[in-house]
User: What shape does this take?
Amino acid sequence: MLRALAAQAPELDVQLVHTGQHFDATMSAVFLAGIDLPHPDISLDVRSGTHGEQTSRVLVGVERVLLDRHADLVVVVGDVNSTLAAALAAAKLDVPVAHVEAGLRSFDPHMPEEHNRRLTDHLSSVLLAHSQSGLDNLAHEGIPAERVHLVGNTMIDTLLAHVDAARTKEPWARWALVPRGYGLVTLHRPALVDDLELLTLTVQQLISLATDIPIVFPVHPRTADRLAASSLDTALEGSNVTLTEPLGYDDFLGLEAEAAFVLTDSGGVQEETSVLGVRCFTLRDNTERPVTVELGTNVVLGARPERIAEIPSLLKQPVPNKPIPLWDGHAGERAATVLLDFLA
Assistant: This one.
């Protein structure tokens, strides 16, 4: 979207603010470098904390930026604490807000992201939805249709721009694996990794599953802490589950693109695998991305680690894997056109 804005309106002054909510070096700097984002114009470095602490620091930081820069529009992405805090800072200063990925709903009140995305949508003047379900959710909540625009999935733009180069790097060879001959796991949500019983059962099931197919498990810092605190990392030693540090974007994408399956509790991975045609199993009770189940490759297992044992048989079943409308690599261009029309 940034590149599209630069191409369509080179005279536009666009300032990129990095809140620093994700402060781990691999989770932040390496990721940003991997997707070719420009260096942020402003870094707030808010780091970790409780939801209230983190949200308040972003709110104060973005407010100061807006008081200094006098923006005409604030664009926020996704559903993290920074998304809501930046939208709230802008709204209180009467600066219009545009929300990318508007309308996603899990209908799970226990997810912090659900509160963030709902409130952000109702603060926004421009809502950029990535699928029909987003339009339906926003209409149901009474948001005027003239504010809402179906543009597609901007994250898929990035994926399609990088996937060929990511495959060329052959990251699977690092662990002597072959394409479609391994599983990939990502787990980070507190509902799973902070629950010792669920985490223990998940590790047991992964060890069992890996007797049939090797598994690569890039470990989120939060998950690494929980595994170490419960000695579950020791239990994984000697198994066919390979634990790694968090990976850069291209390395992870390369692994993801050639995996036999992905097991995850991430939202974005559900989308990526559906476009890549890779089987995805989501270890959550719900998904805010139902299109990945209806048209893509995603199967929601629920927060039930015992269902990991079903993956070999589920892999034999057909999936829809139909093209998802507007997930075509041009969502950023459509989003840029909407934003420029609004500013005009």
